[in-house]
Amino acid sequence: MTITEADYQAELTALRAEYAAELPGRLSEIKALWHALESEAWSTDTLRMLHHQIHRLAGAGSTFGYPGMSKTARDLEKRLLAWQRRPDHPDAPAWQEAAARLAQLVASAGAAPDLAHDAPSAPLLAPMESRLIYLVEDDQALAEDFRLQLGRFGYTVRVFPSTQGVEAAVAEQRPDAMVLDVMLPEGDLAGTDLLRELRAHLDLGDLPVIFVTARDDFDARLAAIRAGADAYYHKPVDPAFLLDRLEYLTRREADDPFRILIVDDEAALAEHYALVLRQAGMRATALTQPRQVLEWLSNHDTELLLTDLYMPECSGMELARLIRQDDRYLSLPIVFLSTEQALERQLKAMSLGGDDFLGKPIEDRHLVAAVTIRARRARELRALMSRDSLTGLLTHAHFKERLAAELARGERNGSSVALALLDIDHFKEVNDEHGHLAGDRVLKTLANLLRRRIRRSDVVARYGGEEFAVIFNDCGERDALHMLDTIREDFLAIQHGDKEAIFKVAFSAGVAAAKPDSVVDSLIEQADQRLYLAKHAGRNRIVANQR
Predict the structure, then answer these.
(1) Are residues 304 and 201 in the same domain?
(2) Active-site hit among 77, 144, 406, 466
(3) Residue 2 belongs to a domain
(4) Which of 166, 205, 206 is nearest to 184 (CA)?
(5) Residues 74, 28 share a domain
(6) Torsion from C-alpha of 195, 199, 205, 210, nearest 10 degrees
(7) Which residues does 452 contact at the CB level (< 8 Å), separation at least 6?
(8) Is residue 3 very low, low, confident or very high in pLDDT (cuts 50, 70, 90)?
(9) Structure confidence by residue, pLDDT tens digits, 324-340
(10) Which domain holds residue 238?
């Protein structure tokens, strides 16, 4: 679903106006409950209802421009929660102190809301995979705000104001994740009770569940853990935290098929192994001539090499040593296949460049299992070496390797390649004003947005510090600029910050298209020069070819 800036601003303005209009009624209800406690016999039911109303203000106040009210409500909520554990009326000093907090709450709610106008934003890119989220939240205004924020990342949010109808909805259509409040109209632990009932009646499997609540006490957190929660956040939650965890929990990046090369001078056996592995979903190629291996490796991204130990033209041990002489293949797993039974010979083979040894004959299912285990481990280790630890994107060095490969592919196929370099504007000020943890969350948010919004054929990397790089394959400069500019405007509309301060961030970028004679460094320099122009033209913009 495409959200235009006009629609977004209209909905946001309406939400804020609705919240402000409802505040007097909420405060009147809180005052009435307070006076009932004060004038009537001590009632735990009345106290619970008061606590519920206060917790709603604590969770939503900051989001709609009342940070002072939200802060005071959190303090008062903790006091009321402690009172619920008492068998009798609190003493006079405790009551007077809570009454003072209530008066402070009413005063802060009467202040003018801080309604900083949102910066303009463009529509979402249409071809973005949608993920369905069930949100169980009785605060309608807060639920709508969540829906708008998550919509920026392609999430479709279905809101339930209470536990009613949730089980039937999950049974009919399983969501990609659930976000629940702990406290709902049905009770102080209604959210965790609901999750336990869902798990008892339905097969939820590994369905991700996140609690977002104003309760920050041990009992609520323990109840969430026992119900099977994956994450727990205290209101008001920084959208970056929630988005980052949802991205992690709902990621659907199906593994690409493992790429296996088989070298065996017995053609029929090599093809049999290849057929077995292909049947298991891998990309397996069989070669009978060891002299063809280096050329194959230079043109194909191979993840594991299976080679016979004894071959007439070149033994498996010699082939392994030959491959290891090239630094590009030092981490390529090499597994020997042979009838050799002598442990000494097996160990010698591995000492000369092999990583493991499988005996012939080997059953098909054992071959698949052995190759899968070793290929997966190799891929995981490779990812650890090539990915930035904070964002999960390619590192600078591996990005340059990938850019070289994509330029070579484009040259061979006659396809276009465009490069963009992005830099977050005024990032030092983010760190100085909000702290380095907030800065890290901004980096992760942009990484997640880029990863969700670019095509599967494109490549995104953390180029360094607050800089990112995107390789657009089969894409001209104009189309790359259009896609990236839409992402830029949408990133600008995302809210960042902690419980006390909400802020927004922009980025600038330069885009350059590869030419027939382009090399890695020259293309990077062109994109960097245009990024420089974007910065000096006022930031928050993208510069491409100046014609």
Answers:
(1) no
(2) 466
(3) no
(4) 166
(5) yes
(6) 10
(7) 128, 129, 153, 154, 247
(8) very low
(9) 888 778 888 898 887 65
(10) 131-250
